[in-house]
Amino acid sequence: MALHSTIQQTSDAMGELFIWTDVDPAHEQDFNRWYDTEHMQERAAIPGFKWSRRYHSKTCARPYLALYRTESLKVFTSDTYRQAFTKQTEWSVRNFSRMHNTQRRVAAVTLAYGAGTGAGIALVSLGSVAVAEQALARCKMLSQSAEGILSAKILTPDATLSTPLPSESTEQRVLEPYLIIDATSVSEAATAATALAKQLGLPETACHSFDLLWDLQSSDL
After folding, report:
1. In terms of Cα–Cα distance, which of 204, 106, 176, 184 is closest to 143?
2. How far is residue 70's CA from residue 62's CA, in Å, rounded to a whole number?
3. Which of 153, 156, 75 is nearest to 117 (CA)?
4. Which of the two ends of the chain, N or C, has the fewest CB atoms closer than 10 A to its terminal CB?
5. What is the pLDDT of residues 168-190, one digit of tens each?
6. Alpha-carbon span 123 to 176, nearest angstrom
């Protein structure tokens, strides 16, 4: 899979749906059951989707992250996806209402380094496309900052497609790019992210780390 030298933002770019959220602790068990027995499969089965992945953080105030890769951003304008997004199941509606501080982004994917899915990831909030371009240029050096670094990508949200969920505040909403680093352990991903953030002049609070809960390939359905 070819890496990129500039940030991808066109409709032909690979797409990724990004849901980062907290959830009401009283309903967390049902939330996880919904994701793991209905929602992941439902999304992965949509034509043009390639995989679904769930992550959890032990340290982040917004601990749940779900990522869904598509063949291109155009998949999010298809009739099948539009129907799935606008006609949610009753179970989905209940769990969406239990989310807090949610971010929903539909982003173009820029492959920045390596290949592969790790046991853990680090997420770096980049703030702007200009900083994302700087991060992209530095990603080729990621393996020097920590062991076990497998791959990295930059997600650049599309303003039109990134419709907020009801639990996301639209006040001062910022559609910033994110860098995601995959590694063989979450500690290795976090070490690399912290080092890169320092090089970019970003605070440590811009970095968050997550363990992979599970991966579902659309081709397995």
Report:
1. 184
2. 24
3. 153
4. N
5. 888 878 999 999 999 999 999 99
6. 12
Rounded Cα gap, residues 149 and 145, in angstroms: 9
CA distances from 78 to 13, 30, 47, 75, 83 (A): 15, 30, 9, 5, 9
- Burial status of residue 88 (CB atoms within 10 A of its CB: 0-12, 13-18, 19 or more): middle
| Cα–Cα dist 123/121, whole Å | 7
Distance CA 30, CA 32 (A): 5
The token duo for 155 is 């997600």
- Among residues 78, 5, 1, 13, the alpha carbon closest in space to that of 43 is found at 78
Look at residues 54, 65, 51 and name the one whose alpha carbon lies nearest to residue 22. Answer: 65
In this prediction, residues 104-116 reach a mean pLDDT of: 97
Distances (CA, A) of 35 to 42, 63, 75, 129, 203: 9, 14, 21, 31, 32
Q: Kindly tell me the burial class for residue 188, based on how many C-beta atoms sit within 10 Å of its own C-beta (0-12, 13-18, 19 or more).
A: buried
